[in-house]
Design brief:
alpha/beta; Rossmann fold; two-stranded antiparallel ribbon; binds zinc ion
Length: 282
């Protein structure tokens, strides 16, 4: 059975992101590993959630372990970096760590896990979080370091492999489809909310994010795993969106509509390639 390795920045990126896909492949017999770069220490947390935990990192580690069990993950490992926060200014944080240092730790896990498929953040870090971008860059760097994959930057900020390296894993970026985001922006404006100040901390600029185009090469049907994804997301109780934004969040981040989307970076897609329905057999 294939081995999938998801590499993301924070506890919750796996569930709020491609949780349905991870649950589906785990249920279908794949070994699905999660490599999490930080323990989400910079997340803002309502104090009631901290009951019984030393700090935010310990709470969010427990939330991730809960989600991993729900999703059926084979293993969770931490890279041990500190969450940078959305402004990327926390001391000694991931976003301020040289890419070579982050890549070296990722490379060690790649050599240990030997995945067939790797999933990580897109070049824009999904919604621009500096830790997501740092992890994305470090994964590319690690692929070059251990497999010799060279990368071709494309206009607009996207990136694909220059050539296929047969012994390197397939690499996908998790993508938020922008047409849904544009609809969400329209709905926010219609209901008197500011799409440039979105999210729990009102620091997410949806208008800018919607301009970051990443081509979708794979659309995975996760309709049968939506309840699993919901239960895994519920494990991250301290990070759930607050109040009346949540239905827009669901639309924006495509929770609940039955599909998750990915952009393939290695092997690079052929021109006019048809949309894949699986992350396997690329
Ligand atoms: Zn994150």
């Amino acid at each position: 059975m294939p081995t999938l390795l998801a590499i993301f920045a924070h506890p919750d990126d796996e569930s709020f992101g491609p949780g349905g896909t991870l649950a589906r492949y785990a249920a279908e017999g794949a070994r699905v590993h999660y490599l999490c770069a930080t323990r989400g220490e910079a997340g803002t947390v309502d104090t009631l959630h901290l009951n019984g935990y030393r700090d935010v990192g310990e709470l969010r580690t427990a939330e991730l372990m809960c989600a991993a069990q729900v999703l059926g993950l084979a293993d969770v490992q931490f890279l041990g970096f500190r969450d940078s926060g959305i402004r990327g200014d926390a001391p000694d944080c991931l976003a301020r760590t040289p890419v070579e240092v982050v890549a070296a730790r990722i490379a060690a896990h790649l050599e240990h896990v030997r995945p067939d498929v790797v999933i990580t953040h897109d070049p824009f870090g999904g919604y621009g979080h500096p830790d997501h971008i740092a992890v994305h860059k470090a994964v590319l760097h690690a692929f070059t370091q251990i497999y010799g994959v060279r990368w071709r930057p494309l206009p607009g900020g996207h990136v694909v492999a220059q050539e296929t390296v047969s012994h390197a894993p397939t690499l996908f970026f998790f993508v938020i489809p922008k047409q849904w985001m544009k609809l969400g922006i329209w709905l926010l404006r219609l209901t008197g909310q500011d799409p440039r100040r979105f999210g729990r901390n009102r620091d997410i600029d949806l208008v800018q994010i919607a301009s970051w185009e990443v081509p979708v090469n794979a659309r995975v049907d996760v309709r049968r795993y939506l309840s699993v994804k919901q239960r895994a997301s519920a494990c991250h109780a301290s990070q759930l969106p607050l109040g009346r934004q949540s239905w827009v969040s669901q639309l924006l981040f495509r929770r609940g509509n039955g599909a998750e989307h990915f952009s393939r970076a290695h092997p690079a897609p052929h021109p006019n390639e048809r949309l894949a329905t699986t992350l396997l057999h690329a």
